[in-house]
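User: Can you predict the 3D structure of Glycosyl hydrolase family 13 catalytic domain-containing protein? Sequence below.
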Amino acid sequence: MEIKTRHTPSWTAQAIIYHIYPLGALGAEHHNPGPMEPKPRIRDLVQWIPHLKELGVNTLLLGPIWNSESHGYDTIDLRTLDPRLGTNEDLAWTLSQLKSAGFRILLDAVFNHVGRRFFGFLDVQHHREQSPYRHWFSGLSFDPSSPMGDGIVYDTWDGHWSLVKLRVEHPEVQAYIVDSLRHWITEYDIDGIRLDAADVIDPQLWPVLRAVAGRVKPEFWLFGEQVFGDYRTIAGDDRLHGVTNYECYKGFWSSVNDRNMYEIAYALRRQFEEPGLYTHLAMVNFLDNHDVPRIASKLTQAHGVFPLYLLLSAIPGIPAIYYGSESAVPGVKASDDWPLRPALSVQEIKTRGGHPELVETLGRLMALRKQTPELLYGDYTQVQVDSEYLIFRRRYEDSQVLVGISIADHDRVISMPELAGSAWESLLDPDLPITRVDGGIPEITLPANWGFIIRVHGA
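Assistant: Sure. Here are the predicted structure tokens for Glycosyl hydrolase family 13 catalytic domain-containing protein:
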């Protein structure tokens, strides 16, 4: 399945994302007190390179890194690295090392809102109606009933008064955003951005960003965060190239917990089987991220991570692995999101997770994905579905593979008429039991909490 959105960067079909939240992973203070001596924590990411190579990822998504008040989404300045992570020089050195090691770099772009210490909002606080920035913020007015006690009210993100919504349709705001994006590309040679809260940003921003990024770096990639609704509202020609696939995210863990593979089968067929809704989009598929409970905590049966990661590696779209979840590190929200974004070294990832052997498994799965054109480019067709297993076909040009996923706690023998009269080879496990029974219909033993990937010849 070739991505059909115009000018979608060709490299995204081969991308395997590793998502890091640097403020958490690198152990930064939870609050930025203001002017402080920079701490070059960002450089520690270079020590992760051997681990990233072991996993087989080739693209890094770095959560918000620009100067902010706390969690990175309450931005102070879009062009200065948060001092809790270091200086701009530290960032340039780190990204150059990662690029030299073969990784593409994606940054989290927070263009919907800023923090109250954002330079423009500080000016409004000080100069009130005379501030040249008073038109930068959505719904801004001066009202003594302000819940923040400063006599200023404004639109927020999701009711959080610490997050001031920008008027991205305002020419000066657009210029600031565009200049910041251009700066990131020219100074740091990044390859793409994730647009935070893209579903609540004025959509007229998307063609502007597409045009600017395309001129500076033609292979630049833009994808957005959208939880609910039709993803085509923010992605497609002249908009974003792709979207975070929250529909499948829910289907992944829910199908395992409820022993109901019909749920994820329905979502995959709806999205990717022709004429699916999103066959033309570069969807980012994930089991967890910095905003939701970690998959190890979400699943009622911990071993369910194995068939889910196999599924993640084999469906259309771009797989994304959240740091720590490659060994099933747990994490749930408390009074805030920091438990989802813990400080972790590579060594701690391998010792704190419930399944440290998952690291090796993921490395094998991602290597197989990169070596299998059908998984990278192929279309999607559902073949069989049951409450505890799903089998689908990925076809590319004249070649096809069959993928089986089982969440059952015991091996299942599955009749496979799709293999009748064909030769085949097992790509995932060479010793996969396949037998022919009377009538020539092959039977496959589908392993418990695992699956198969079979290339079919002569079909």
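Residues 310 and 365 are 7 Å apart (CA to CA). The first strand starts at residue 17 and ends at 20.
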